[in-house]
Amino acid sequence: MFLSVFEMFKIGIGPSSSHTMGPMVAAARFLDRLRASPFAARGLRASLHGSLAFTGVGHATDRAVILGLAGFHPETYDAARAEAALADIRARGEIAPPGLAPMRFAPDRDLVFDYGPPLPGHANGLVLMATDAQGDVIAQETYYSIGGGFVVTQDELTRGGPARPAAQFPFPFESAAQMLAMARDSGQSVAAMKRANECVVLPASELDAGLARLWAVMNACIDRGLAADGTLPGGLGVTRRAGAIHRALMAERGLNLTPPHVINDWMSCYAMAVNEENAAGGQVVTAPTNGAAGVVPAVMRYWLDHVPGASTARLGDFLLTAAAIGGLIKHNASISGAECGCQAEVGSAAAMAAAGLCAVLGGEPEQVENAAEIALEHHLGMTCDPVKGLVQVPCIERNGLGAIKAVSAASLALRGDGRHFMPLDNCIEAMRQTGADMSEKYKETALGGLAVNVPNC
Fold first, then answer.
1. Whole-angstrom Cα distance, residue 4 to residue 320?
2. Residue 457 falls within a domain, yes or no?
3. CA-based nearest residue to 346, from 275, 413, 250
4. CA 159 to CA 295: how far, in whole Å?
5. How far is Cα 140 from Cα 126, in angstroms, rounded to an integer?
6. What is the DSSP string of 316-336?
7. Distance in angstroms (rounded) separating the CA atoms of residues 86 and 133
8. How many domains does the chain have?
9. Is 60 left (phi over 0), alpha (psi -120 to 50) or beta?
């Protein structure tokens, strides 16, 4: 199944790709269905299930659904307009999305958090309904936010989702083993094969412009995070730290007194800058999720700013390679914390970043695959246990450590010839099995782990 680089990397808003972006996208899809319907809807209702209910408030899922039903979309989100729209909806008890007549919707009454068992298809489920003038349901759809901003209906989930036929792509690899075999047969790099696949569905000029746009948004997010101070929203009182760390690092530069391990602090502050912006609801790029959005940009920024010979001309190759690895993980396991824990989010992001860095540092496809495997292997078993359901503790620091692991994995892979004991495919399968066996308490419900071991204050 072909997954585009622009599906693995999406421009959106914080704090969560599966809990904020996904529900907003689902609501937008429901509006499209209503616009095509011959029946006039006069009211709307929504219910959140599973992880969307347990950590929905902390992840702003309720806001996302309301704004999605009002016509907002993650990629074009405007914070000022959104706040005005929310205030108007709450005051009037009515939503008036573009292209549809006004519909009754009182958030306190019509948006329900269902804390019972999750819906059968996925841990992140929501049901959207439209009613007639008498309040009877005339349209209903179940959506699942399956991680990274991806959304499927119940029917799409049953059928396996809307897939593009593999035969139409020159390099239709669905496993790392296939990817390496095709690379050997063609003499092409992972990035080159991914580029050839992408160019089946869009012109090369659009591909390059889109890749440049992704990096521009990632880099701007880092810069905003490094320039910001203060306390993050949500009630935990978490202080932004990336800016202060960056200022200290800048002051130490050139003093010849800094130990070599401080390079880890540079990587961490880049990653933390992104995830502090994400926690504040700012614009980020899912990579492959919002909770793991800092890893890939941090490694890219580290490469550009700290590695001799780095060039912006290779940024596209970095992103294409990373997307190829992310697509394999999503297709064969998961990138959803609610489904497989944080090993599926930061672990996947570290594997993607390690592969991208290895590629631009001259790694052969076998070394790229090895780098991804090393990074993912050493995140296996990682739980997703956000305190108070917020993407702050442990998520912000975890991105910094994920970036460090990614760089270490790429470096180790480049020291070898690509031959290694554990294939990436087997590691991905181990991650899938671990996630399936993991207690629900540790899969983005804030019911276990760090989320319930907090200071009494």
1. 9
2. no
3. 275
4. 33
5. 11
6. HHHHHHHHHHHHHHHHHS---
7. 23
8. 2
9. left
Digit-coded pLDDT (tens) for 329-372: 999 999 999 999 999 999 999 999 999 999 999 999 999 999 99
Burial 372-410 (b: 16+ CB within 10 A, else e): bbbbbbbbebbbbbbbebbbbbbbbbbbbbbbbbbbbbb
pLDDT over 80 at 292, yes or no: yes
| Vertex 416: Cα angle to 352 and 186 (nearest 5) | 65
Last residue of a domain, one of 137, 159, 181: 159
Crossing angle, helix 190-201 and helix 346-360, to 10 degrees?
A: 110
Q: Are residues 139 and 246 in the same domain?
A: no
Are 199 and 341 in a shared domain?
A: yes
For residue 205, how many other CB atoms are within 10 A of its CB? 9
pLDDT in tens, 15-63: 999 999 999 999 999 999 999 999 999 999 999 999 999 999 889 999 9
The size of the chain, in residues, is 457
With respect to residue 409, please indicate whether it lies within any of the assigned structural domains.
yes
H or E element, residue 124:
strand 124-131
Contact indicator for 11, 75 with CB cutoff of 8 Å = yes
Q: CA-to-CA distance for 32 and 69, rounded, in angstroms?
A: 10
Judge if 276 and 179 occupy the same domain.
Answer: yes
pTM: 0.92
Q: Give the structural domain span for 36.
A: 5-159
Element (H, E) at 7: helix 5-8
In a domain, 53, yes or no: yes
Q: Is the CA virtual torsion 357, 360, 361, 362 positive or negative?
A: positive
* Confidence grade of residue 79 (pLDDT, cut at 50, 70, 90): confident
Residues 436, 440, 441, 443: is their CA dihedral positive or negative? Answer: positive
Q: Which of 105, 128, 159 lies at the terminal end of a domain, its last residue? A: 159
Report whether 123 contacts 443 (CB < 8 A). Answer: yes
110 located within any domain: yes
In this structure, the answer to whether residues 66 and 97 fall within a common structural domain is yes
Question: Within this chain, do residues 135 and 174 fall inside the same structural domain, yes or no?
Answer: no
Q: Residue 176 and residue 182: Cα distance in Å, rounded? A: 10
Specify whether 196 is located in the same domain as 246.
yes
Beta partners for residue 50, in sequence order: 124
Q: Is the pLDDT of residue 312 over 90?
A: yes
Q: Which residue, among 221, 273, 291, has the nearest Cα to 51 in the 3D structure?
A: 291
**Quick one: 389 and 247 in the same domain?**
yes
